Amino acid sequence: MKAKVIVTGGCGYIGSHTVIELIENNFEVVIVDDLSNSSKKSLSRIEQITSVLLQFEEVNLADEQQAYAVIKKHKDAKAVIHFAAHKAVGESVEKPLMYYQNNLFSLINLLSALQENTISNFIFSSSATV
């Protein structure tokens, strides 16, 4: 049985490449993305490359109920890789509350849901550090 990994922001550039690598290394992957900085087109590209039908959940992790529901649905996951953060410096200065809401609330909601569902393997990554 394949180990399940949830990839938040899995339709974005770094997330989609990570999803491909996970699939190619025999992991079951669930993509969680709100599509605010990405497109569903990524899903078909990943499926073309890997020949795997993807599990996709369109979820805004800043919404506590959505975050808890998706983690509860996939509580058999062994790990979560979190790429779902906004990263544009200029936009963050113009819209700081939007960035706080997404980057902090989504992280807090996700970590709380993981703790409640006893998923302890968590990787946080942000292209904002590149």
TrEMBL record:
Co-factor(s): NAD(+)
Pathways per UniProt: Carbohydrate metabolism; galactose metabolism
UniProt xrefs under Pfam families: Epimerase
Enzyme Commission code: 5.1.3.2
Annotated signal sequence range: none
Protein name in UniProt: UDP-glucose 4-epimerase
Family: Belongs to the NAD(P)-dependent epimerase/dehydratase family.
Keyword Isomerase appears in the UniProt entry: yes
Domain of life (superkingdom): Bacteria
Xref: Gene3D superfamilies: NAD(P)-binding Rossmann-like Domain (3.40.50.720)
Keyword Isomerase listed: yes
Positions of the NAD-dependent epimerase/dehydratase domain: 5-130
Reactions this protein catalyses: UDP-alpha-D-glucose = UDP-alpha-D-galactose
Keyword list, A-Z: Carbohydrate metabolism, Galactose metabolism, Isomerase, NAD
